[in-house]
């Protein structure tokens, strides 16, 4: 499979993009995390901390179109546990022009390829709000399996939301790798 996207490290100037994405109510409402207003300066510090922090249990990727340099989204792997070989695909945020056009699927495939081939993980989990049909379809499409529904797992927008727990283990990844020629 030929990817139409690349991952690159964050740059300080990416903070403007991150802050602009954070202001999109349509995006924030579908993500598992809590929403809060964040200043550009706070996001600039966050990006700088990512660039200089070298966290042993989280990796963030700026997403670009293949051969391009401009950020169009970002994704992360967190809760990296090398002893148990487990991690959490913490999600993806994409420019609204890219969402729903296969970009999320490519990001997901590239994330699991990195998790299983570079980090040598045995299991990668993900979580999706029950009402986020697009994310659920994409995760199943790339090989994640539903483990269950976590009831009232996330409080946002004044109410509790259910959240699906999904995972992919190495055997699932090997099948996807062969099927899609990753």
Automatic annotation (TrEMBL):
Stored Pfam families: Acetyltransf_3
An annotated Gene Ontology molecular function: acyltransferase activity, transferring groups other than amino-acyl groups
Domain of life, per lineage:
Bacteria
> Which segments constitute the N-acetyltransferase domain?
5-173
What Gene3D superfamilies does the record tag this protein with? 3.40.630.30
Q: Which InterPro entries match?
A: Acyl_CoA_acyltransferase (IPR016181), GNAT_dom (IPR000182)
Name by which UniProt lists this protein: N-acetyltransferase domain-containing protein
